[in-house]
Amino acid sequence: MIKKNKKTILFGFLSTVAASILLVNTAQADNLYDNKPSSDTSKLEAYLKFTKIVSLIEEQYVDDLNTSDIIDKALKGLLSNLDAHSSFMDAKESKELQVQTNGEFGGLGISVGMRDGALTVISPIEGTPAYKAGIKSNDIILKIDDQATIGMTIDKAVSLMRGKPGTPIKLTIIRKGEMKPLIVDIVRDIIEIQSVYAKTIGDDILYLRITSFDQKVVSSMKEAIKEHPKAKGIVIDLRNNPGGLLNQAIGVVDMFVDHGVIVSQKGKVASENLVYNARPDGSDTKTPLVVLVNDGSASASEIVSGSLQDHKRAIIVGQKTFGKGSVQVVMPVGNNESLRLTIARYYLPSGRTIQAVGVTPDIEVSYGEIKKAEDGISIKERDLQKHLQSELEKVDGVKAKKKDEKEDKTVITEEQIYQDLQLKSAVDILKALIISNKK
Fold it and tell me: Which CATH superfamily is domain 103-190 in?
């Protein structure tokens, strides 16, 4: 999200009530659903109709409402009907947004979005309370504690899920394949995220897992690559990555592409039409790349995977991504209130959009595990005593492996690879690319 604190919204005064809501940057607000300009007569009729309805509500609605309350409710309805990411935020909600983007807060570590009107999990962030509780991508959140999410805005849902660290929360979720809703109990915590994990696979493959695009992603990736000079191929894992900072997504692509468009954004206002190009300095255009994505990969993750795909710089493996490719700005509108408005969409180098479409992998692979065939009991004579000893240990309940042997977290083992079909496919493809690169 791009934040514009200094952008102003001009209010005109056609009438005391109508102007308070409807003359917000009139040039941008006219006819959101078609490109034909409104005539002055049709504008006036629309404003008068709104004013009349507000007056009727104020006079005859069963509960007492003042004009300010009615306008605020109208604004919330207006913005929520534009798209899933636009919203009107009152003073309390605006303050909560500032806390969310600038300060520490207790939360679940979960990224959500609206899909077909349902509050849907984009992805849990690795290592957070939601991740540890087993929340999965595409889970539909039906209730937050005792509040139903039907008709609820994303801002309201996020506000309910955020809270004091150490406090409990209960989510009722619907999950594909489950016969009935699941109730998941989670304890809020301070969300601390390590954005890049570097591991090795064998002697010549570097695995980089990016959990979210914070301000340290590019520098962390460059440092990891520098620390593994023998790597002949790289796997970039963007699965369940909900996105983050645009400049970091651009920076990641720029590491591997030396010319051409990385991503562009286009909106109604000319100043929002921007093109981001790759720079030739220091770009690695030779090392084979495979990028892993799934339906929890969104926003910045889709820019990276889609751009590398369009430049034919990487093979994309996994499942179709979430499809969040719009740009929002936050604009203050007085009285500590603010407007979050979608002002543009992202477009990949080929001109295709991400919004509601996502990125389709070059090779689609479902998540799963590879079952390895069990070895038979056929053994050589020199191994007979060792084999019988291990069988005896099984019978006697003695563990063949020592418990105090610590797992090396900087290495992905063959056993771990076989537990992840998508990763196994990526590694096999990368090995083929490395061989082809040698030739």
Answer: PDZ domain (2.30.42.10)
